[in-house]
From TrEMBL:
Keywords: Hydrolase, Magnesium, Metal-binding. It comes from Methylobacterium nodulans (strain LMG 21967 / CNCM I-2342 / ORS 2060). GO terms for cellular component: cytoplasm. Its cofactor is Mg(2+). This is NUDIX hydrolase. The keyword Hydrolase applies. Residues 20-153 form the Nudix hydrolase domain.
């Protein structure tokens, strides 16, 4: 039997499914800043050096939220509590080593950061920086990611809504 995803895409007019976005997982790393406001950690991508969140491909043997947390460790040295349910998703065009681009959909999980390690695997390959939520939304180039950051920040500031819990200053 054909792959159900490919069959569904044929009925939707997408041919063999090659045009469907590739799936990735990522985290939105959050902490309270010195002023008590929400801060977001962004890192630079390796190829284009644009501001992004830690993300990557799903990993065999790990649930999506676990794989996303692993990317946060590898790319930014971040340790914390990751949500089991995605807070949203966004689309972007990933440039491959071949210089081709592919459409990716990133499933984003919240990461309440407890600490940032002194050493981590990709420390020499990327720059990381804490931004206010509004600065982070302006710094990213993907409109869907900017909207997701703004939505999370809006929820954090509303009375009675979920607040950043247990996140230490790092």
């Amino acid at each position: 039997m054909k792959n159900p995803r490919n069959v569904a895409s044929m009925f939707a007019g997408w041919g063999d499914g090659a045009d469907l976005p590739r799936r990735q997982v990522g985290v939105l790393p959050l902490r309270k800043g010195p002023d008590g406001g929400l801060q977001v950690m962004l890192i630079t991508s390796r190829e284009t050096r644009r501001w992004v969140i830690p993300k990557g491909w799903p990993m065999r043997g790990l649930k999506n939220h676990e794989a996303a947390a692993r990317e946060a460790y590898e790319e930014a040295g971040l340790i914390g509590r990751v949500s089991k349910h995605a807070v949203g998703s966004y689309l972007y065009h990933k440039r491959l080593k071949s210089r081709d681009t592919v459409l990716c959909q990133v499933q984003v999980f919240r990461l309440d950061v407890r600490k940032q390690l002194k050493n981590w695997p990709e420390q020499q390959e990327r720059e990381g920086r804490w931004f206010s939520a509004s600065e982070a939304a302006e710094a990213v180039t993907e409109a869907g990611l900017a909207a997701l950051i703004r939505a999370i920040a809006s929820r954090e500031t509303k009375p009675g809504k979920r607040r950043l819990q247990g996140a230490a200053q790092v």
